[in-house]
# Entry
Amino acid sequence: IGTRKSERMISAEVLRRYPHFAHVADACLGEVAKLCEERKFKAGDRIFEESGSFLATARIYEKGEEATHLLLLTEGSVDIALTLGSGEAAVVGTLVQGDLMALSALIPPYHLSATGIAKKDGKYIQIEAKPLRKLCDDNPDLGYHLMQGVAKGLMARLQDTRVELAGQSYTS
# Structure
């Protein structure tokens, strides 16, 4: 598992490129940008793990703790894997540029329900979840647009999981 490097702080203009932030007021988006850092990853890195907490090195999330960062994929691709009852991991979808990752950082009880494994080298923006949740509470426009992105992401992952499970039932 590779170590991720913090590259730089993120500007509000960079965030505005993504639909989750495109219609958010400048002042509010500036506050979100203060919570962000860009990170790089390599193919094969585990970006986050089921039910996790933030670590500055090696992995972003460690099992058993609260998910502390929402992630926005800006380059590369990340496979989403679920741990089956047998203990095996099943890839149920792939995230690409513009997708939000670690959505559980915004949804109580803030425990990740999947693992993200880098398929290709890339970058993501990590956003501190607790202060972001506070900003969403204080700025309903931000909260609305961000939660629309979370809902779309969850629906896509549910559909991907259904397709994967349907495929497994035919091959078993």
In short: Confidence is low (pLDDT under 50) at residues 52-62.
